[in-house]
Design goal:
174 residues; mainly alpha; 7 helices; 63% helix
């Protein structure tokens, strides 16, 4: 089913039509030039900020290399606060994953994908995110119903893992 949503009236009348007719063609070129320029200006870093980014990034990398993942997270977050590079969100997710904090890693992987929709490693990152939800009670109950049924009479001595695929290629895959 397709819904149609009309954002603007088809034909404004009176003064509104005249005002939009005059202002809108002038406003669009200004916005298309001014907004990207403002964003670029906001992203320019001072020399001190660049030095801080470099310092925190080097600290984060050393901590990561030494398996001090919480320290790496803290330093990568400082880098992200200064320069806003979405790659830092991925690095934070990686450090959380290796620090056995799956919920935090999933959060940062999702933020990375939202901020970098054209990321070259998008497929790899998506594989690190399991089913993207918690189990429903009826899904867990279905396993118990099966195990209590005659259909499971031959199933003995087995551990059933219900983690939404996390250990089968998700976060546990390192």
């Amino acid at each position: 089913m397709t819904r149609r949503i009309r954002v603007f009236p088809a034909r404004p009348s009176g003064f509104a039509r005249g005002a939009f007719g005059l202002v809108l063609p002038l406003l669009i070129p200004v916005l298309t030039v001014a907004l990207p320029a403002r964003a670029a200006q906001a992203m320019q870093l001072s020399t001190q900020q660049k030095q801080d980014v470099r310092l925190h990034y080097e600290r984060a990398t050393r901590a990561y290399d030494l398996n001090k993942y919480q320290e790496a997270v803290d330093e990568y977050q400082k880098v992200y606060e200064i320069d806003g590079d979405p790659v830092m969100l991925y690095n934070i997710g990686q450090a959380y994953r290796l620090n056995d904090q799956p919920q935090d890693s999933i959060h940062f992987y999702r933020r990375y994908l939202q901020r970098s929709p054209e990321a070259k490693n998008r497929d790899d990152v998506n594989r690190k995110i399991p089913l993207r939800r918690h189990a429903k009670p009826e899904e867990i109950a279905a396993l118990f119903a099966y195990l209590a049924s005659e259909d499971a009479a031959y199933a003995t001595g087995h551990v059933y893992t219900m983690d939404g695929g996390e250990t089968a290629g998700g976060l546990a895959s390192r």
